Amino acid sequence: MRLTYHGHSCFVVETAKARLILDPFLSDNPNAKIKAADVRCDYVLVSHGHEDHSCDALEIAKRCDATIVANFEITEYFAAKGAKTHGMNPGGGFNFPFGRVKLTLAHHTSSVEAGLHPIYLGVPCGLLIQADGKTLYHAGDTALFMDMQLIGRAGIDVALLPIGDNFTMGPEDAVTALDFLKPKFAVPIHYNTWPIIAQDPAAFAALAARSAHTVRVMQPGETIDV
Ligand code: NI
Ligand code: MN
Q: Which domains, and CATH codes, for the chain?
């Protein structure tokens, strides 16, 4: 399983059988080195409705003939706009040709078209992806919650965890999340995109190391093999 980080919460995941993009946010992402038009993929996984996780989903899915995988309300929203979709809900898993995806709990909100009349798109989720013998957990946007202990039972190789604070967990809660999830290593996400979520990822790594957790800070554009 090969992971490329594109800043914020966006990753391209290459498995033996398919290419996935998680939380596509490229064209308006100040830290991304590519645009939505540069992506090739077979599946588009969206953790929740907010535009900083979903805004390039429709364009990429239509151009690549890729399937959007998300909670039921998000997939209905994109299906109405002409995308190929696969709706799920928290606690449910499905065996795709490339591997298994399970939607997990996340504590956050989920809407699009913010303003006077936002459209609420179901509950926010995390993404638990098993492919090529590896298990990846993308926490989406979330607060710390005790049930992360249950998610950790999957035996996580890499956990992608928000540390930005304000909208999600901050660094201290993310370290407690690592106590619950027990991944082989974690990659911090959802920080430094805007001043309101400014964080020092090296300081987070040092804090996590004090509790014997391994953190790998990825730069936008960087690729690692898990
Ligand atoms: Ni959000
Ligand atoms: Mn977000």
A: 2-216 (3.60.15.10)
